[in-house]
Amino acid sequence: MREARTVPTTVEIEQLLRSAELRVTRPRVAVLTAVHDHPHADTDTIIGAVRAGLGDVSHQAVYDVLRALTEARLLRRIQPSGSVARYESRVGDNHHHVVCRSCGAIADVDCAVGHAPCLTASDDHGFVVDEAEVVYWGTCPSCATTTTEERPATPGRTHP
């Protein structure tokens, strides 16, 4: 089981930026902090968090910072089928995701077997595989409980 992740301090965020050879700017610190605070957040959530801390910041500024941080591999951009792009700060490993079909909640799933890319293709067609992306789909515990509670009784069947 994976340990709970802690949100880095401002000094640690600044060190991350410098280690990636990026200038330390207030928007970059704010965006990186927002993604650490809100794993798997969409852009609107990140913009809201950044504006709560910095005031008026344009959508374009946040998009530009997200792109720069993703290119620097300080963030990872994911986009499950049918979903908007989301960002996470867990980088440097080859983990996967489980997505709720009902509410869209996303959680990290560690590789099931071995080292990155953790899955060996049955036929790699000559490619040098360096990453495997797997998305597990299902219903989260909260939605499963709600669905069970709201489901009408089926004739001839009783529900506890």
Summary tags:
160 residues, alpha+beta, three-stranded antiparallel β-sheet, three-stranded mixed β-sheet, 6 strands, disordered C terminus
How would you portray this structure in words?
The chain is an alpha+beta fold and 160 residues long. The protein has five helices and six strands. The strands form two sheets. The chain has a three-stranded antiparallel β-sheet. A three-stranded mixed β-sheet has the order 5-4-6, with no helix packed on it. Helix 2 (26-37) crosses helix 4. The two termini are 32 Å apart.
Oligomer: single chain
Strand order of the largest sheet: 1-3-2
- Structural class, please? alpha+beta
Write down how many β-strands occur, each being a DSSP E stretch of 2 or more residues. Answer: 6
Task: Please describe the topology of this protein.
Blueprint: H1 10-19, H2 26-37, E1 41-42, H3 43-54, H4 59-71, E2 76-78, E3 86-88, E4 96-100, E5 106-109, E6 135-138, H5 141-150
Helix pairs in contact: 1-2, 2-3, 2-4
Offer a concise description of the structure.
About 35% of the residues lie in helices and about 15% in strands. With about 160 residues, it is α+β, with helices and mostly antiparallel strands.
